[in-house]
Amino acid sequence: xxxxxxxxxxxxxAICWKLAQSPKIDELYCAPGNAGIAAVAECVDIGxxxxxxxxxxxxxxxxxxxxxxxxxxxxxxITDALEAGGVKVFGPNKKCSQLEASKxxxxxxxxxxxxxxxxxxxxxxxxxxxxxVGIYGYPMVLKADGLAAGxxxxxxxNEADAKKSIEEMMGQKVFGAAADKVVxxxxxxxxxxxxxxxVDENTIVPMQSAQDYKRIFDQDKGPNTGGMGxxxxxxxxxxELEQQIRERILEPxxxxxxxxxxxxxxxxxxxxxxxxxxxxxIEFNNRFGDxxxxxxxxxxxSDLLDIFLAVTENRLADVEIxxxxxxxxxxxxxxxxxxxxxxxxKLIKGLGDVEEDVIVFHAGTKFAEMPEGSKCAVCDxxxxxxxxxxxxxxRVLGVTALGATHEEARAKAYxxxxxxxxxxxQYRTDIGVVDRRNSNNLQ
Length: 443
Ligand code: AMP
Ligand code: GLY
Fold this sequence. Notes:
The chain has 443 residues and is of the alpha+beta class. It has twelve helices and 22 strands.
């Protein structure tokens, strides 16, 4: 079987790493991949948003299954295009991809099917929104309707900040057309958790839960990022809460998909707020989370290919998905300056010093030639290649460790983080620290 994974970040490394363990795969490709993915798949130099290029490659290589990592190609309709060429695709079609590409589409879906979420209103006119400033009090939650690389949500603490953000979103158009429509929501208080689910037309199956850290600095300070670390399972889930999520959110969501003719096949990522009144949906994403996937797939004991194929063929209900008892912690190492501007091309040292059972998922890395006379920095020997691995993105690596207990996994992850270095390196030191945000099910 020939499989193509689309994307080139930490999430795609985790997917390729897991797929590479399947005995049923003869050839595994990744477009465009990165320096870490190159160890488990053949990287092809085609961008994840080059739909034509990817379809052409899939046709030439007679790819059997394509797995789509990021949200942008999904929203562009890559699934529809590949399926039209006879390729099986794990990842929702363009119609279903609106669940991430349009906040108002999702809010309307949730309201129509009586699924708990924050109250909301939609605005397409700046003046009307200015007049409605503070409609739900403060903080005021403002969301650009469209895709904005995870940056389109503003939580404004007061009227002045809210007005400034409205001006930026709808006046200066800092998010472009993504904020032609703005969704205003009630502010929910509680503990956040992410739940990734496999979904086909008949079945929704949650994976193991995970906790993400979105802010750049310790103690949730500083601006939002794509995610600075995760651990799995989440410590906030109790059997009772899981049942509430199943009954109030997962089952009505699947019924809603069926009633609305949304033939979703892929991963539904549910951002949850666990409030005093129970779980509520903050957002839907229509793909694996990054870096949630790194700590969740590290714990999977089944063949991921079997699951992907079952989803594309609507046989998910027949597959048993097994998980390791071990806990996982993933710490993201980022470039200095991220999530603002940052330098690239910094040599990464110490990758070979990491313990063998620790997985270093690459997010933003690439190979670079080493100067004349130096050793190969990849194998730390004289292999003749003289290659080094350098930084090539904001999030660079995700150091992922398993342990019999949460604390063991956390200690092992940080022990190995210390062995890696590059100029400007920054990471949070509190990933997985148990505190008020996650202490109600400490084990
Ligand atoms: P989203 O991109 O919709 O997940 O929003 C990004 C972040 O903003 C979430 O992870 C929450 O921390 C916060 N957020 C979004 N919506 C709300 C809400 N209605 N109430 C409180 N916080 C929210
Ligand atoms: N870690 C959050 C996301 O993947 O959207």
